[in-house]
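Justification of computing resources. Each target in the renewal requires a structure prediction run like the one illustrated here; the chain below, 136 residues long, is used simply to show the kind of job we budget for.
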Amino acid sequence: GERPGRADVARMSLTPLPKQYRDEVMAAAGALDEALQAEEAAGDGPLSAAAEAELGAKEQKAGQLVAQYGQRYLSPSSRYGDDDPLRRHPVFFLMEGAMNLFRDAMEKDSIPRARKDLIIKLDQVLQYAEKCEVVS
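Resulting structure tokens:
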């Protein structure tokens, strides 16, 4: 189906989310948000070994959760096909946008340039997800 635009997101209703999806999207968005904010705070200067290790752990956790999310919800093999109602949920739409931006930034090696936009998008995902009721 056709992808919703930004104006459509505002009109989409925050229908309840499946608990597993809400937990996973919040974990992935939260971990990536945390890693990006830690990178931002670290700046470009040298880090202590402890700070380097802590940042590396955050990046690794984010990488795992984001990859798992992508595999489960966005890959062609996902059981959530184009007709699945989840794909029309604002949280899904916002997370997909964040994931696309993140993937593009990774491919172009431009994460530092995209970081602020990514953090804004991920914060939106978390905000919207928190407002949603959960269905099991």
